[in-house]
Predict the 3D structure of the following.
Amino acid sequence: MKIVAEWLLPVMIAFIVLYGLVKKVPIWHSFLSGAAQGLTTAVGILPTLVGLVTAVAMFQGSGIMDWLSVALAPLTKIVGLPSEVVPLMLIHPISGGGATAVLSDLLSRYGADSHIGRVASVMCGSDETTFYAITVYYGSVGVSSIGHTLPAALLADLAVIVLSGVGVQMFLQA
């Protein structure tokens, strides 16, 4: 398996170059054109990403997340979610990096095989960083109206949150 891992990328690159040569594609020009487009896209979405990162830092630093965690704890108990995963469910739609930090903290405190660790792992593995994805994908193509995307994505996030608790209870509890 290690040999496959070491050779997969070089073989793929060689295949792409050979395929381009066979099809008589100007490979170097195409590469430079794609790199320039990627750089233009990155520069175009940079202000949006800076705004998103700033908002996440403000959300975490303001204490709102802690307050919401306490306020939502009774609701989460009704659907079978441990109150300890509330910070994860709040931060994951906003920030993948923040969610990974929260998940890591939960796993180190409670263990990967605990109910909390399992629910957090399923939730983190099944959910999407909704606001980040909308920001990056819509921002990169210049779409300013997100229409029904946000409500549909948040509904999917809610389904993941509820079903992570239910799924762990059904399938992973001894």
